[in-house]
């Protein structure tokens, strides 16, 4: 997958993947290493979306539209300075919405097997997403396509290694491709 060159401007990145993939952890560490602002897309969800997911009900596209608009606006507002956003961005059309608002965005997809994610999500006590929704996340997931700027990485790797691979990809160095 193509990865943009960031020589002319700071990177605008979305760390994507299903719930429990490590997006927030990797995104926050990556932003710290790059000295860029970081945001977690979960913080942009309205209360109704959180209540729905907490009840084990997957969000519909209509639930996501205003949320994606807010995320696109946040990215667009940082296109010149760079930023890192953790966001599921599961479907191509969701990524297209983010790209429409911020054309220079690059996606870093943390990918791996459903069994690993199910264990991670079941072990979380401080998150609204129940493990019952893992299956729906994988059903919705559309991996990055060859024409999308980004890279896919193995979510099973330690955080420091994932961040290192992200940084290497941003410098145009070879990256071990994930699942």
From TrEMBL:
Pfam families: SKI. It catalyses: D-gluconate + ATP = 6-phospho-D-gluconate + ADP + H(+). Transmembrane segments: none annotated. Keywords: ATP-binding, Kinase, Nucleotide-binding, Transferase. Its EC number is 2.7.1.12. Pathway: Carbohydrate acid metabolism. It is an enzyme of class 2 (transferase). It comes from the Bacteria. Belongs to the gluconokinase GntK/GntV family. This is Gluconokinase. It comes from Pseudonocardia eucalypti.
């Amino acid at each position: 997958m193509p990865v943009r060159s960031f020589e002319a401007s700071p990177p605008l990145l979305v760390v994507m993947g299903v719930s429990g993939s490590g997006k927030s952890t990797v995104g926050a560490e990556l932003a710290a290493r790059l000295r860029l602002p970081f945001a977690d897309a979960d913080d942009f969800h309205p209360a109704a979306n959180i209540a729905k997911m907490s009840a084990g009900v997957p969000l519909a596209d209509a639930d996501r539209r205003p949320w994606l608009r807010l995320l696109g606006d946040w990215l667009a507002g940082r296109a010149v300075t760079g930023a890192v956003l953790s966001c599921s961005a599961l479907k191509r059309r969701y990524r297209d919405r983010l790209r429409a608002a911020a054309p220079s965005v690059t996606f870093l997809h943390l990918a791996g097997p459903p069994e690993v994610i199910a264990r991670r999500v079941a072990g979380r006590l401080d998150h609204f997403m129940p493990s019952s929704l893992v299956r729906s996340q994988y059903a919705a997931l559309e991996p990055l396509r060859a024409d999308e700027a980004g890279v896919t990485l193995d979510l099973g790797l330690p955080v420091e290694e994932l961040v290192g691979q992200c940084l290497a990809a941003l410098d145009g160095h070879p990256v071990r491709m994930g699942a």
